[in-house]
Amino acid sequence: MNAKAILQEHVARITPLSNEQFDYFFSHFTPQSYKKGETIIAPGKAVGHEYFVLHGCLKSFYRTDQGKMFILQFAMPTWWASDYEALYNGTRATTTVDCVTAAEVLRLSGADREKLCREVHAVESFFRWRTNRGYVAAQKRLLSFMHHDARQRYEELLQLYPQLYNVVPKQLIAAYLGVSRETLSRLYQP
Amino acid sequence: MNAKAILQEHVARITPLSNEQFDYFFSHFTPQSYKKGETIIAPGKAVGHEYFVLHGCLKSFYRTDQGKMFILQFAMPTWWASDYEALYNGTRATTTVDCVTAAEVLRLSGADREKLCREVHAVESFFRWRTNRGYVAAQKRLLSFMHHDARQRYEELLQLYPQLYNVVPKQLIAAYLGVSRETLSRLYQP
DNA sequence: GTAGTTTTGTGATGTAGGTCACAATATCAG
DNA sequence: CTGATATTGTGACCTACATCACAAAACTAC
Q1: B58 to chain A nearest CA, in Å?
Q2: Which value, in Å, is the radius of gyration of the alpha carbons in chain A?
Q3: What pLDDT band is residue A190 in, cutting at 50, 70 and 90?
Q4: Contacts of B141 in chain A (CB under 8 A)
Q5: Using the beta-carbon criterion (under 8 Å), do A142 and B72 form an inter-chain contact?
Q6: Domains identified in chain B and CATH numbers
Q7: Quick count: other Cβ atoms within 10 Å of Cβ B112?
Q8: Crossing angle for the helix pair B170-177 and B150-160, to the nearest 10 degrees
Q9: Once rounded to an integer, what is the mean pLDDT over residues A164-189?
Q10: Gap from A174 CA to D11 C1', in Å?
Q11: B73 pLDDT above the threshold of 90
């Protein structure tokens, strides 16, 4: 399935767009390819775009001064990623987005997203829905952090991203769970 | 300042609505008063509305089987609260929303919100913006949970809700921070 | 006011998970 | 295939925070 069809199916699941509307919508996206390990958004830099994943896997994360990494999200195909705080507020990135595996994405600029939202009501509706899902997911994860221990969060992660287990280094799983890699290593066989 | 003026100022800060548009928007809200401790949304029940706080303070929280409480949000004046997962998906509430203090709110039904979003493009734009802020805030709190200890989170909370300290029992502060009340008590004077 | 309930402080003790160190594997480039 | 690099497993020890228990305040309702 090609890029256009993947995006179209993703959008149509939420908001019906006419073919003309979708063509117009799609014309604002730019395809990009990245190699494994490439950085798409770097902390301290301006953030102009968000990214819709077609193939591969991205991660967005925060790195502390001591070099510790905390993963906010893995972005699998049909997921979106960016530093949304920076993108919306026009501030510099505080997080990094890079490639866990080689990836193909569609890039949309923040300015074009706002323009599309203004011009096409259904597009704004789509983005409202999408952000909403993200909000609810973030709250659930927050709750999980508050009342589940590392092992429970690990099991939730496998539910949420079943494909992930074989694809990404365990270090990254640990960074998503918010535990040390040593602790994660001890979780799966006592 | 009356209810209408408070809401109007809040909305105008994000999205300019004409007076006619705002009157129409406002006509879908119902004022409600609650006493301290009253429950607005209860787990297991259907959720039909969201709530805009005019005066007082609400909290939304999750309670575990063991009776532990974890606070997702304190809702101060001009904040919104509901069980958004339930409201959007039409499922039963998994969280509780109740009153930390006596409160006055404006109530909007989920159905009316969707109707307004369909009818008035600027309203949809407002709600997209609002959810976005919530999403970014939830991600920041998530990060804070991952790499800050209890004392640091406590200091962040005082930044975010300076008024809160004198208004709500410390137990609730602890439930927001995700620590036991004993630990919180030991934090502020080592 | 006084009695009852709720909220807070403080000590003693237990535990999940962090940190450091080093060995055992994978993975990758040439 | 071979050395170099990155990733994992495992032990020893440490620390932040939970839990339990009980005392001291602080609100509430008569």
Answers
A1: 17
A2: 17
A3: low
A4: 142
A5: yes
A6: 3-182 (2.60.120.10)
A7: 18
A8: 110
A9: 92
A10: 20
A11: yes
Can you say how many angstroms the Cα of residue A6 is from the centroid of all Cα atoms in its chain? 16
pLDDT (average), residues A78-85? 98
Distance CA A75, CA A134 (A): 12
pLDDT higher than 80, residue B190: no
Residues of A in contact with B136 (CB under 8 A): 84-85, 88
**A-to-B residue pairs, Cβ atoms closer than 8 angstroms:** 85
| Closest chain B C-alpha to A124 CA, distance in angstroms | 7
Which among B162, B156, B154, B161 is positioned nearest to B180, based on CA atoms? Answer: B154
Strands (E), chain B: 30-34, 39-41, 49-55, 58-63, 69-75, 80-81, 96-99, 103-109
pLDDT, tens digit (0-9, with 9 covering 90-100), for B154-171 = 999 998 888 888 789 999
- Please name every residue paired with A137 in a beta bridge, in sequence order, or none if there are none: none
Q: Which two tokens stand for residue B190?
A: 């080592």
Q: Which residue has the tokens 């006592």?
A: A190
CA distance A21 to A33: 26
- Tens-place pLDDT, residues A32-50: 999 999 999 999 999 999 9
Give the length of chain B: 190
For chain B, percent of residues with pLDDT exceeding 90 = 92
Which among A154, A163, A148, A145 is positioned nearest to A187, based on CA atoms? A154
